[in-house]
Design brief:
single chain, 384 residues, alpha/beta, 9 helices, 20 strands
């Protein structure tokens, strides 16, 4: 695959403005993805350590490569936000194209990584680590007992947003993870009932089996159905032989973590509607249309492209086939050429480096290869 192109920048490079934006999003409880280039093979414009932030509307701030690579990063960042799991995204110009899915062609899915083909890359390849930053799940804590104080101290260390509330002011919200009642008899009945009716994933009561059973019978007599009563965890926590308040808090929070990571809990946040997507008919790239996305009107429809080069190729195909041009999906692929210096396959567009030699146009992946060609050929001719 070639050498590592990021030796000069071995660690993530995030600008002050980008770091401030990440802090603002986290403070607002807004989910986003941190996209970090961990490997870059020339010729690509990205370097290892480049960082960008992707928000729920698909917008991107920062730099992780050119427009085509950016389309892949944006689209798979939205998938990462949906799953909540980080992914190593490998964007290659020559991957096999067995499965079409997403930004380019998804060809290989391993644990923690996805490989996609991006035919727009001029022979280079990049790998980008997509890490979701999601709002911390809220845990509602009722009570001021020593056990409650221990829970309040330990919960933030587990990435939980603990919020202390009075029992008569409990207002669960969608996305809340747990209700922990450690009030030793104060307002327990209405508090637990409200948590059950709100369908919180976990409702824990710090109480002995005898007192817990008595409370359950009171709730049953008050009309709470058995399927809800069965969800009350008492004595709250995992059985570890806990005795001290801190030990009980550890066992209780272990149960909360178990519920959080068990696969049934899904965080809920105010997310923008999923952005619309379109398929570039030239290269097959999935595009998230925006104000700057290249596009043309054809047969009463708007056709979007990942870059200006694909748009130009599409328009040439329409001119060549006349008024009865076929549907966008039948447009030919992009024009390619071989860089005579490095052997790279180059997608030719208006910005591709080139020069005229022996009556032919020679294309290059980068200005460096063009300069080397000039030294080896044109200067050699001049010397004779």
């Amino acid at each position: 695959m070639g050498g590592h192109a990021g030796s000069r920048r071995a660690t993530a490079v995030i600008t002050d403005a980008l770091a401030l934006r990440a802090e603002e999003l986290a403070a607002q409880g807004a989910p986003f993805v941190t996209a970090t280039v961990v490997r870059a093979q020339r010729p690509t414009s990205a370097q290892a350590g480049n960082v960008a932030l992707v928000t729920t509307d698909g917008s991107i701030q920062g730099f992780v490569g050119g427009v085509c690579a950016e389309h892949s990063v944006r689209l798979y960042s939205l998938k990462v936000l949906e799953s909540g799991e980080p992914v190593l995204l490998k964007i290659l110009p020559d991957a096999a194209t067995d499965i079409e899915e997403g930004a380019g062609y998804e060809t290989d899915r391993e644990d923690g990584s996805i490989t996609v083909k991006n035919s727009c890359l001029s022979g280079g390849a990049i790998e980008v680590f997509l890490e979701p930053v999601l709002p911390q799940p809220r845990v509602l804590l009722v009570g001021h007992t020593p056990i409650a104080e221990a829970v309040a101290r330990l919960a933030p260390e587990l990435g939980l947003k603990l919020e202390r509330v009075e029992g008569d002011r409990l207002e669960p919200r969608p996305g809340d993870l747990a209700l922990v009642v450690a009030a030793h008899g104060r307002d327990e009945l209405p508090t637990i009932r409200r948590g059950l009716e709100a369908e919180l994933p976990y409702v824990g009561l710090v109480a002995s089996p005898k007192r817990g059973n008595g409370l359950v019978e009171e709730l049953r007599a008050d009309g709470v159905p058995n399927e809800l009563l069965d969800r009350i965890d008492f004595p709250a926590g995992v059985e570890i032989g806990a005795v001290t308040p801190a030990e009980i808090a550890v066992s209780l929070l272990a149960r909360v973590v178990e519920v959080r990571r068990g696969g049934t809990y899904k965080p809920v946040f105010d997310a923008a509607p999923a952005p619309a997507t379109a398929i570039d008919p030239v290269c097959g790239m999935t595009v998230i249309p925006g104000p700057e996305t290249p596009k043309v009107e054809h047969d009463g429809e708007t056709v979007y492209f990942c870059r200006v080069g694909c748009k130009d190729e599409y328009e040439k195909s329409l001119l060549g086939s006349g008024a009865d041009a076929g549907a966008p999906a039948t447009a030919p692929g992009p024009t390619t050429a071989i860089d005579p210096i490095c052997g790279m396959t180059v997608v030719v567009d208006a910005e591709t480096p080139r020069l005229e030699h022996d009556g032919e146009t020679v294309y290059f992946c980068c200005a460096g290869c063009r300069t080397k060609f000039e030294k080896e050929h044109l200067h050699a001719v001049a010397a004779h």
